[in-house]
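Hey, resending since the last one bounced:
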Amino acid sequence: MDLRPSPSSGRYESSSSTKKPYLSKSVSDANSHNQSLASILNNPHAGKSDGWWWPTSSSLPVVPEFAPLNPLPKPGSDLTRTDFTPYIASFSDPFTRFHDIQTHTKSTLLLDDQNGENALVACLREVPSLYFKEDFQLEDGATFKSVTAENLVVQEKLSQYLDVVELHLVREISLRSSSFFEAQGQLEDLNSKIVEGCKRIRELKETIRLLDTNLVGPARKLQELNLKRSDLVALQSKLNLIIYVNQALSTLNLLVASADCAGALDVTDDLQHLLDGDELAGLHCFRHLRDELATSIDSINSILSAEFMRITIQEAGNMDAAITSKFKARATIAINGEGHEAKLDEEETSNFRDRLLPFVIGLLRTAKLPAVLRIYRDTLTADMKTAIKTSVEELLRVLCAQPLDSDFVAGERVVDTDGGSSSLASRLRSLPPESFVQLLKAIFMIVQAHLARASEVKKTIEWIICHLDDHYAADSVAAAIALGAAAAETASEADGQITTFSQFSPPSNFSRGFSIHEKGNDVTTMSHLSRNFRADILRENTEAVFAACDAAHGRWAKILGVRAPIHPKLRLQEFLNIYNITQEFITATEKIGGRLGYSIRGTIQSQAKAFVDFQHDSRMAKLKAILDQENWAEIDVPDEFQTIVTSLFCPKSGTTGHGDDDSAVTATSQTEVVQSSSDPSMVDAGVPNKSHNTEQSDSTSTPPDSTAQSNDTNSRRSNPRMLSFGGVSYHMVNCGLILVKMLSEYIDMNNSLTGLSSEVVHRVVDILKFFNTRTCQLVLGAGAMQVSGLKSITSKHLALTSQVISFTYTIIPEIKRILFLKVPETHKGLLMLEVDRVAQDYKLHRDEIHSKLVQIMRERLLVHLRSLPQIVESWNRQEDTDSQPSQYARSITKEVGLLQRVLSRTLHEVDVQAIFRQVVIIFHSQISEAFSRLDISSQQARQRTYRDVQHLLGCIRSLPSDSKSNPPNWGQLDEFLAQNFCAEASQ
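The structure tokens again:
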């Protein structure tokens, strides 16, 4: 215990003598650190807290306030001791007291140290060390033995040892007697103060007893009574709550039994509010209340779901029977799908919305609307499939009982081998095209009725969710959406488990709106949850209608797929009826569903492509057969083909051929092409081609006037009816007309099947290539002599072929223009190159035919010129008795005249001039070269040669040509005549 000043005497006292060394050490330390102690003592304002050696405040002198020090002199001024007198006077008294205390303490400590050392030495010297051990105990056997039994001297001196220790203790006590008595005095003061304190405590306890009896007691009793009253009131409230809950459960059961979902939800709201609070905590009788509420809410959801399904689906079931009955009564449906949608009027729509509104709100409150919409989607899909299947079965009984059309092959009906009723697929395949279209129309109407109902349900739900602004139930719907959002969030947090309405706090009254216990969620979070829940409902609502459309597409595609082998074999108009009603069905259903139906689009496109492929293959086979049977004889062009050309390729010009535009049928008419044969009275007058195994007959020479007479005779014959295009008429053969008919059918397919325009263009290119190639093989390649039995390929055949090729080449640009109106831009580039390449092939083919005609005439000329040397040699041996040209000259002019008549009657004037221009050039060069190699020495030979050259030049002059020379067709033969026969010319 530290040294503390005594309050009574003002002296220092110590609580233990063991603290003196510490005091001595502290003082000695203070002496050893003079510099630190001096800094403390020099403080003129030191208080009692600055040193533990100061007396208490009662014995300390009052420290005077020191005057402020004079300002320090400037550097260099003189300082004297008198200048520090005020400072020294301020701490001289504290320093004097400290010095006295320090001197007294040193002397006391020195004395104590000496006495303690002497006393300790004396004790250690006189008393054995055994008695000073820390573990000295007489109970210990060894210690007792060493003290008593073994050392009797020690036992005898034990009292002496005690006296020595007592002596030293008395000395030590005497040294500290002043502090001891001072402490005893303080203890007596403390005892008196304790007695006084106990007295005051007794007085205080008596006062408290009086207060407790007179004041606190009644107040405490009042408090106890209040607590008891509160407990009784709480008990009464609990009993009333139990009665209320019991009545609510009974009411809830009655409301659920009577299908009053709105009232039942109100009751569940109140009970759920009680469960979420603490009112029912600890009531054992209601331990199953939460499960009972969950069961009731499940029952309510079942009722709401069943009513929702009844209103949306089941009430629409009578429409199928009505449509089927109507179809059976009329046995036909003459309307298409457009403009006959089963729409509700404004009043029916309003009634339907009012009926559906409470059930939708109830499902929103229970957060079951998305799940019910998913069930509704599956049910609607199944109902759509069932309705279509049932309707097909009912309608097939009527359609299969009808007699077959005359143009429908009875063998195509598929009947079971057992003679019984055929399967559904077989009966569908056995339907004629017209009946099948009627079946599709009936299905179209049934599907439209179902989709219209589904669309009305979709619009009603969207109206309730998004557009119920000014309606009386707008607040209820908004609150119900918020509740559903909270339930959806709770369900997501429950790892996909189904969330019942008991997992959140609903409002207490349905008609007055709702309020949500947010449970820590702020307004922003609830708004976000509401948007997500609303989006979920709208998505499921849209998916339901789309699923119904997709189911209808699948059934329609399945029905089309059953007849997939039949549709490509139909006529164009029959297939177009099926294709068009399918396109109308796709458009109408996609408009309701809001998405594209890829399955049905793929089915109809694949069947359309199969139709195009089959039609193309059949036309290719037909065209090949017709070409192989073609005799390449000119025929009269029926009015039908002129109408086709006029309507397709000349839409803006008047009819230039035969027939009247006002009464003309369109190119899409289904009139069969009459394959006319050539007129038997028309005798082939063409020049035979020796290279084609032709037979050449000897004929007598014909003078020029006889040639003119022959032309007049032929001109009087009736000209055949030709095919006109662009103001130009063309002679045609049977295969050319068939090609025109086929091209018109391809154009009809292109205009009707717009999605397959690229495929149609490919097929047109194929058939044009085939016709050009096969025609070239049959005519230029002489293949017709083997396949069609022609004895020879004459110039007439070549000319007619040139006309057909020229006509086709002329209409190719118009065909390209018409076809490419429907072709996508991405495919036009390559297809145009293909069409242009085909057109170039036709032009080359025509030029080769013209070259072949020129080659025929050149070969005939060379044949006659080979006999010229023998003829000239005979002229030199015999006299000239004949005034007529030679036989070879007459033969050449006869064959040239015959070729001229054939080509002039068949080919265009421009083509005839181009051909004979080359013939004239060949005649001039070959004849002049042949005569220049001959040895004409006699006079009679010169005269006969001059006569023959004149005859040949007369024939050359009469040939058609675009030469501008005078005389016409002047050339090398004229020069030869002028150089070698000037004398004969003058005679």
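The chain has 31 helices and four strands.

Sorry for the duplicate.
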